[in-house]
UniProtKB/TrEMBL annotation:
Record family assignment: Belongs to the GST superfamily.
InterPro entries in the record: Glutathione-S-Trfase_C-like (IPR010987), Glutathione-S-Trfase_C_sf (IPR036282), Glutathione_S-Trfase (IPR040079), Glutathione_S-Trfase_N (IPR004045), GST_C (IPR004046), Thioredoxin-like_sf (IPR036249)
Protein name: Glutathione S-transferase
Residue stretches making up the GST N-terminal domain: 3-90
Record Pfam families: GST_C_3 (PF14497), GST_N_2 (PF13409)
Top-level lineage group: Eukaryota
Species of provenance: Candidozyma pseudohaemuli
Domain GST C-terminal: 96-241
PROSITE patterns named in the record: GST_CTER, GST_NTER
Length: 241
């Protein structure tokens, strides 16, 4: 494993920063290949050639003695695999089986329960902005009603669920007393989308300041944003874009 090489395929405006952060935490040398979206929306052919869905991140691991790389997609899957196979010191690995199960839960929760509501709100917002006049008034009204009656309510429920978990723990990280894959996977939907930009939160339909509505999540977002190797990951991202 010491000679394994990593290539992270990074599509702009994606969730791939989390994997940059993961690789930095585990001190794994990697090549970052950046792809620009076609028309600001679609993945280019070069990324589709790497993985046919065109989604990002995609991590390729070139193992010693093997002719073809191992190609991993989906952030939760990548985080789970890399920690399982490349964290011999247990830096990001919980100490107990019960805590490992909690981390696995959050890897699925972030992408399966939380992120879909954020994506739906984003798509609705884009549809409202891009619909031609005068249909845009009708689209805005329909989208606004759907969002307020379902997606915003579900988003608030999920955020309250997370805030309650941290409140019960007394703050800190989501699992145990150290950074784990749970914090890394949740940083994008919670930290970047909800707390890093209040205007973005308002655009999502949140009618209360997130820092007031979910104070424990807010403190957590500051905790993870301040992690030294996350800051390094952000610098790596900026240097390559």
């Amino acid at each position: 494993m010491a000679g394994d090489k990593f290539v992270l395929h990074y599509l702009t405006e994606s969730r791939a920063l989390r994997i940059v952060w993961l690789l930095e935490e585990l001190e794994l040398d990697f090549l970052l290949k950046v792809y620009n979206r076609v028309g600001g929306v679609l993945a280019p052919k070069e990324l589709l050639d790497v993985f046919p869905t065109g989604m990002s991140p995609v991590l390729q691991i070139f193992k010693e003695g093997e002719t073809e790389p191992l190609t991993l997609a989906e952030s939760g899957h990548i985080i789970q695999y890399v920690i399982r196979h490349y964290d011999p010191q247990g830096k990001l690995t919980p100490s107990s089986d019960a805590e490992k199960e909690k981390v696995d839960y959050f890897l699925h929760f972030a992408e399966g329960s939380l992120q879909p509501h954020l994506v739906s709100l984003l798509v609705g917002d884009v549809a409202s902005l891009r619909a031609p006049w005068p249909a845009n008034y009708l689209v805005r009204g329909i989208v606004g009603k759907i969002n307020s009656e379902y997606y915003v309510k579900r988003l608030k429920t999920n955020l309250q669920f997370l805030d309650d978990i941290l409140a019960k723990k007394g703050g800190g990280f989501f699992v145990g007393d150290k950074l784990t894959g749970a914090d890394i996977i949740l940083e994008f939907p919670v930290g970047q989308n909800i707390f890093s930009n209040e205007q973005r939160a308002r655009n999502l339909g949140l009618d209360v300041p997130p820092s007031e509505a979910w104070p424990h999540l807010y403190e957590w977002s500051k905790l993870v944003a301040g992690q030294p190797l996350r800051k390094k990951a952000v610098a790596t991202e900026k240097a390559n874009l």
